[in-house]
Amino acid sequence: MAGAVQELVREVMDIRQAAEYLGISGDTLYRYASEGFVPAFKLGNRWRFKRSHLDLWMDEKSGMKPAPVGEAVAPKQKKPAGRAR
After folding, report:
1. Which of 16, 58, 71, 82 has a C-alpha 20 to 30 A away from that of 37?
2. How many CA atoms are closer than 13 Å to the CA of 71, on its beta-carbon side?
3. How far apart are the first and last CA of the chain?
4. Is the Cα torsion angle 9, 13, 16, 19 positive or negative in sign?
5. Mind listing the pLDDT tens digit for each residue in 52-66?
6. What is the CA radius of gyration of the chain?
7. Other C-beta atoms within 10 Å of 28: how many?
8. Is 3.90.105 the CATH number for 2-61?
9. How many CB atoms are located within 10 Å of the residue 66 CB?
10. Model pTM?
11. Which one is predicted more confidently, 63 or 78?
């Protein structure tokens, strides 16, 4: 049971796990990683994927750009007033 829970919260995934997470085939994900389309890195000669990087990448690609962690969102500033005549 503990192994199954650990498997669900794994941060670094291999190509099979990441393909399943993204809902695409392993061959497609391999091609995307090789072309630099998805965030990935090589550990030895194997592709690895960080779940948090994939989540941010999916948010960015879907048009949902979250505020960077640690930065407060500044209130909208008013336009500067025109010159007095």
Report:
1. 71
2. 6
3. 76
4. positive
5. 999 999 999 998 765
6. 20
7. 13
8. yes
9. 9
10. 0.64
11. 63
